[in-house]
Structures are given as C-alpha cells and as structure tokens.
Amino acid sequence: MKLIVNGKTHDLNIEPEMPLLWALRDEMNLPGTKYGCGMALCGACTVLVDGVPVRSCATPVGTISGAVTTIEGLGNPDALHTVQTAWIEHQVAQCGYCQSGQIMSAVALLHRFKSPTDAEIDAAMSGNLCRCGAYPRIRAAIQDAAKRLNGVAA
Amino acid sequence: MSRLTTIARRSFLIGSAVAVGGTVFGVYKYQQPHPNPLLNELPEGASAITPYVRIDAQGVTIITPRAEMGQGIHTTLAALVAEELDVAWDSIRVEHGAPGAAYYNRALLQEGVPFASLDHSRMAEGMRGTMGVLAKFMGIQGTGGSSSVPDAFDKMRVAGAAARFALIAAAAERLGVNAATLKTADGAVIASDGKRLPYTELALAAAKVQLPDNPPLKPREHWRYLGKNMPRVDMVGKCTGEATFGIDVRLPGMVFATVRMNPAIGAPIKGFEATAAKAMKGVLQVVALPGGVGVIADNTWRAFQAAQAIQCDWSGPVHGATTAVFMEAIDASFVDKHQDSRIRNDGDVTKPLPATKMLEAQYRVPFLAHATMEPMNAVAWLQEDRLDIWTGTQAPTVARDQAAALAGLDSSKVFVHTQLMGGGFGRRAESDYVLQAVHLAKAMKGKPVKLTWDRKEDMTQDQYRPAAVGRMRGATSEATVQLLDVHVASPSVLESQGGRLGIAMPGPDKLIAEGTYDQPYGIPNYRATGYRTPALLPIASWRSVGNSYNGFFMECFMDELATQAGTDPMKLRLSLINHESSRKVLMAVAEMSNWDKPLPKGRGRGVAFHLSFGVPTAEVVEVSITKDGVRIDQVFVAADVGTALDPRNIESQLQSGVIFGLSAAMFGEITFVNGAVEQTNFHQYEAVRMGQSPKIHVRVLEGGGPIRGVGEPGTPPAAPALANAIFNATGQRIRELPLRKHIGFA
C-alpha cells in the first residue's frame, strides 16, 4: 500500500489493520509520534491527516487516504513551525513525551480558530494527556502562537 | 530530648536511598576516589578531566548523571558545571553518561536519616555526615528524593572549576607564562595579549594536571547562568520529535518485543499454548518468562497482537486478592506489634488536658499507579562477552548489576545507556522491565531486542504507591491546638524495594511516617507514630513517597482543628508554625490569594502547608461549585528552595507537582480483584486534563537556608488544599481519596 507521510510516498507491505502509529514508528522509522495508550485516550500519538488531528494508535493504516503529517514533518530545529517556536519560547516541555501530540493538536486547533478562546483550547486539547501537568504553559504557548500566526508581535 | 535516646537504641534505616543502592564496600575504600567512568571508553583524542567534563575536538560535553525525566535536571546540572568552566551555553552537549560509582548521590542518603529536615542538631548533622560517607562507599547512583540539586550544587561547580583550573594550567605551560595572567571566556583560555587557546586544544594536556581539591568558586553576584532562566537543553528536541526516549531507540537488526505477565501480580505461570501466536505474521519467538510470557517479532504491534493470542494458564494470586483485604490488613496494623517508628513525642499526648476539646478523625488513601506517559521499555543486546542496555532508569547502577547477574556477566561487561524518560515519578527506580529485556535478549542472542509494554501491562504491572490510613487525635482550646497525636499505617516501601534488591531492611522505615513527625508545628503535645502493615504486594516510591498521603492526613486534620477551635485555618497555622521560612511561604500565599477577602457564595478556598525534602511549601486552592460539579479555578503556591538556580524551571516543577497531586486527589485509585489490578488504561485511571487545569500562580522564595530540590514538594499540599477548599465551599468534609467517590468534578 502507498502512504504519503511528510510529503514523501512510502510503499508499505503491511497489514491494513496495523495502526498508523506502528507503521510510522516501526516500519517508517519515524519515532517522533509516541505510543501512550493504544486506545485513543491520551493523544500522545496525534498526527494530522489532511490537516485533521487523528489518533494514530487507533487508526488502521488501511483507512488512511489523505496525506499524513507527523511532528518530524511539521518543522525541524533549523526551520521551526510557528507553534514549535512558541513552545520553545515558553519552555513548555517537561518530560516531553506527550508534546509531539500536544503540538499536532495545537496546530490543528489553530487551523480552525485564528484566536481560540480558553473554552476552545479546552475542547481541542483535553484529549491530550500530560502527566507532568505542563498545561499552563501549553495554553500560554497556544495563545502566543495564535498571535504570531496572526502577524501580531508576540 | 527523648527522641535521641530512641535513635541511639535503634538502628534506623536510611530512607529511600537504600532503595536504589548497591554493594557496600569496606571502610578502606572511602579514602580512594571512585574511578572516573569516562576513562573506560574514552575515544582517541578525547579527554576527561573530571567525571563530569569530557572535551574532544567537537567541544565540551557535560555529564549530568541524574535521570532526566522531565524535571529539567540536565539543564540545571549542566549550568552548574558551565558556570565555573566558563563555556558558552549554546556550545555545550549534555549526556547522562555511563553509570558509575563516581556519580554517587550523597544527598539522597543524607536526607534518609530519621530526623526532620529542619533538625540541625549535632546528632542530626552527625548522622548526615555519616550517611555522606556511607553514600560514597556504596557508590549509589540514583535519582529521587528531590536530591539532585542539593547533591550537585557544590560537587558539579567544583568539577567545572577544577577543569577550568587544569585548562588554564595547561595553557600557562604551553605559553610559558604565569597562570595568574590568564583568563577564560566561552570555552577558551585568553592570554594577556589577547591570544585565544580553545579548550579543545588544551584538553589532552589538561588531563595530566594535578587537580585542586577546593578550587575557588564564583560568588553569586558573578553568576551568568545560575539564578537565571536558562533555555532547557532538551527543549528543542522535545518540540521537534528529535529527542530520543528509551522507547525510540533504534539499532540495526533490531527486533521488537512485548511481555504479558500474570495479571495476579507476582504469581507464576503454569504453562501456555502459543501455536497460534507463533504462526502469526512477523512473530520470531515466544519466550517463557518468570511469571509470564514474552513475544519477539519484527514490529511492536505484531508482538502485541501475538501476546494476546497466547493461551496462558495462570496460577492464582499470591498477594491476597482484593482491595478490601488489603485495606483490612492496614486497618488491623494499628497495634503495638506493628509499631514501626515514633520519631516525635513532645509533651505528653496521653495525659488528660483540662479545658480542651478533643477531636478524632480517620483518613484513607488508595493504592496509586505511576502511569508515566511513556510505558516501560528497554532495549537489550547480548553479544558474546558484553551486554548493552538502552533504557530510562532512575537507578542505572542497580539496573546494570542486576542485568549482569541475570546474563551471567561481570558488571564491567554490562553497559547501560541511560535515555530520556517520558516521566518517572519513582517508577523508573525499579528494574523489572530491564530484566525482562535481558531475558528476551538471551533468547535472541546477537540481536538487539526492544521490549515495549502496552498500556495495560504498564498500569497492571506497576509497583504501586501503597494505600495508607491515618488516625488523628487532636485537642483545641482558645483558638489554638494543644495536642496532636498522629497514627499512620501503611506497608513499607523500603522493605519492598529492599526485597527486590536482596537487601534485608532492619529497623523502622521513616518513609511510612514522613510528613507527620517533621512538620514545624509548635504544638506542646505532639506525637507521631508509624505502623508497618505486613507486606501486601510490591510497592514503590511515588512522587513525594510518604509525604504524598501524610500531607493529606495532617493538613486536612489541621483544618478540622481550626474549625473546632473557631479560628481561621491560615491564622491557626501561622500561630503554630515556629519556623521562619515556613511562616513566610504561608504569608505569601495568603497575600497572593487575597485570603482575607471573602469569596462570593458558591466558591471556596482552602490552604495547606507541608514541608517535604526540606522545602516549606504552601498552597491555596480556590474552587467554584458549578452545576457540573466542583471546578478548580486557581491555585497559589509558594515554596522556599534556599537558593533558586533556575526560577522558571522551579515554577514549572511546582506547577507540575500541584497537577500531579490534584490528579491523584480527584481521580487516582488502583483497586484489586483476584490479585489483579482492575484499571487497565487512562479511561479508568484518569488525570487532570487541559479543561480541568487551573491557573497556577507560583512564588519562589529564597530564605537563605540549604539549597533544595523541588521535583516533589509541590505534590503533598495539593490534595489537602483542595479538600479544604471543598469543605469551605460546601461544608462537606471528605476524609478519603479519591475525592470523586464523594463529590463530582466539572
């Protein structure tokens, strides 16, 4: 089967029922997307499929028809995505394990809402668990990223 | 001081330090420095001036031998060395380094002594000194007990200063000038004529220089990195997916594995039928393990699927069966036979007090899981004469030695490569998952095997925070407390951890009662007694350990006493506390929260104070009662860390501690049926999420006392402050966690 990930087409010989997460991690060697729960409960595995956030741990790879973006495809240390810049500016990550998923959810949120309210942030981000409790800084970084994306000086 | 005679008569345990311990060497060892582990595998052209500094052609690498599990310790430890070594922040590399006795943790053992952290009597200090020596004998390398900063504060600054001294000496010799004429700047020695000699070119010569024992350290007013908000060294990697956690390690030829253990914790497996599993796509091997079975495949998910396809014949429970049985055992241990410690016994709590009103209450907390975001995992690669392990561990020397024993190798042939941890909270001080990976590697000799637990395994095969019960007695008169008599019962974490290490643990376990006997309350009749429930099932350290439940017992009861005494709970605490910086953290949260200004109907606030790991910490929680349940609006936190090395990171650790404590207080509970844990994933073991996360205002105080670590002290006051706020808003006094059993949350 063919899968477009971060703009690159992969030809995979795997079971269609394999969750996208494990195709990314073990078959395509893209470990930035994390395994947390396997049941779409924690959001650590969140990726974008055509810009829409998807819990890759509970999504069979055979059901994917769109282009997949993972944290590795969002930006890199030399060319950060605006959301990543805001995350670094606010020093959000502690253990950092959930942050790939948090950032992907935040990117999707900011696609939908240019200036999300607290309630919109709560609704979009409550599927992403953070056991370190980095939530106050995640919220601040999202608000900051929104300003940056809207061209307002941070 | 009746306390002192008690201590003299008994051989006390050393707290959580032993739990990550190692072999005790003879006394003669103390005079010898531990070998520098960097010298074992030093590449050609590289130089290791101290165990913390490696310099090669690419630049300076700082070894930060404490587990980075989110607390930001790599950044703070690197800053200690970089400050004195004088290197540019963006030029340094930071590594966990190989395990080594040289990286022993003195502070972890010193804080294990059975004295309150505020007790600086000759006896307490003498015992801490002894423990410091003992720590060096044992060569313990462990991360825990909020000890990394106190342990490293002098040691790593000295390492940086000594390395700088050696680099200057090497430059002086090369240039034929007096060392006093040389300066340093951003990774180079600068001669008086402006000539710049990079450290990278001096390192090999510097390694031959005799190091000074006590190089002078910079005074605080000259600090450039310490005391500042430093950009975390792991931040960019963690925001771009480039950071490698243990679960992300990938090696050529690697195979992928999982395990499935008897759900009845610790019980054996009688047999299994794996024909169908072995025929599944990608499955390479099914391996019998003590208490379970492992599957090795060419993909983690395929290993997960195959493990579920095995028919296992499990033996029945060995540790009792249900939550009720465990709780009955704890309730039954408040008897002389099980009395374990009585570290505080001021006045006489048995004498009747005239003109006082008595109050009694019983509090309960459940078992808890660590539930780190990253499930347990380890990579093991067994070759002819060496074993390599890549994993996240808070106890790398223990993991190394236990893995060596299992593989039949000398410890010197086992190489632990410590990786970033997706949370630790005490879970990664255990080595069970590492040993499982070694078992699998033995079955797959020559190939690196990555073991990954699924979430169900992680939640049901944890080594839990034990349940505990507190029985409180108090007496009040004229708006003050005359008597506090605390009885707390729980199984012993230290005994459980010691058992896994094969170390018998004589004497009392101060962890059971920590947070009861050591609080700075000047109550004339004040006694704290710990009771040790006979072992129930494997248990472990959990962020703040005994303080995690004793903070709840003590501070809710203090609130009850305030109510009975007809006084304000903040005022009562301030009037009882006889320790200046503890008073100051309370006054800080009173001011931050406008404590004296009443809240409108339907809202409430509660305060809690707790001193743990030497850090006085006060929290005020504000709640609203909404149609959907209790909503936590704001939390105010103040803590005194002595000296704040990285204020922004301290803020995030305190916020983290609050949310971790609130999660447990609101939702956390592990229950047992047939010896097995009932909660299998985050839908049954919930934690605070974004929509429930309050605003958290932090104030960090520097009272000038000893420098302290803050990974844990933010956790204990969160539960009682919340329960007290609920009482303030509703009049409902909840004495059992999790609170959701008694009240709903929005």
Walk me through the structure.
The complex is a heterodimer of chains A (154) and B (746). Chain A has 154 residues and is of the alpha+beta class. Chain A has helices at residues 20-27, 71-74, 82-89, 99-112, 118-125, 135-149; strands at residues 2-5, 8-11, 46-49, 52-55, 68-69. In chain A, the strands form two sheets. Chain A has a three-stranded antiparallel sheet with strand order 4-3-5. In chain A, strands 1-2 form a two-stranded antiparallel sheet. In chain A, strand 3 (46-49) and strand 4 (52-55) form a beta hairpin. The mean pLDDT of chain A is 97. By secondary structure, chain B is of the alpha+beta class. Chain B has three domains: 33-105 and 141-240, 2-Layer Sandwich (Aldehyde Oxidoreductase, domain 4); 246-317 and 376-452, Aldehyde oxidase/xanthine dehydrogenase, molybdopterin binding domain (Aldehyde Oxidoreductase, domain 4, 2-Layer Sandwich), CATH 3.30.365.10; 323-368 and 464-741, Aldehyde Oxidoreductase, domain 4, CATH 3.30.365. Chain B is 30% helix and 23% strand. The longest helix of chain B has 28 residues, at 148-175. Chains A and B meet through helix 1, helix 2, helix 3, helix 4 and helix 5 of A and helix 7, helix 9 and helix 19 of B.
The CATH architecture of the largest domain in chain A: Roll
Please outline the major beta sheet of chain A: 3 strands, antiparallel
CATH first level of the largest domain in chain A: which class? Answer: Alpha Beta
Which geometry of chain B do the CA atoms define?
globular
The value of Rg of chain A in angstroms is: 15 Å
Annotated CATH homologous superfamily of the largest domain in chain B = Aldehyde oxidase/xanthine dehydrogenase, molybdopterin binding domain
SSE layout and pairing:
The complex is a heterodimer of chains A (154) and B (746).
Chain A: E1 2-5, E2 8-11, H1 20-27, E3 46-49, E4 52-55, E5 68-69, H2 71-74, H3 82-89, H4 99-112, H5 118-125, H6 135-149
Antiparallel strand pairs in A: 1-2, 3-4, 3-5
Helix pairs in contact in A: 3-6, 4-5
Chain B: H1 2-9, E1 47-50, E2 53-56, E3 59-63, H2 73-85, E4 93-95, H3 106-110, H4 122-138, H5 148-175, E5 183-185, E6 188-190, E7 196-198, H6 199-206, H7 235-240, E8 255-261, E9 269-273, H8 275-278, E10 283-289, E11 292-297, H9 300-309, E12 311-314, H10 323-331, E13 339-346, E14 357-365, E15 377-383, E16 386-391, H11 396-407, E17 414-418, H12 432-443, E18 449-452, H13 455-460, E19 468-477, E20 480-491, H14 493-501, H15 510-513, E21 525-533, H16 547-565, H17 569-576, H18 580-592, E22 603-612, E23 615-626, E24 629-640, H19 647-666, E25 672-673, E26 676-677, E27 695-701, H20 718-730
Parallel strand pairs in B: 3-4, 8-18, 16-17, 20-21, 24-27
Antiparallel strand pairs in B: 1-2, 2-3, 5-6, 6-7, 8-11, 9-12, 10-11, 13-21, 14-19, 15-16, 15-18, 19-20, 22-23, 23-24, 25-26
Helix pairs in contact in B: 2-5, 5-6, 11-12, 16-20, 19-20
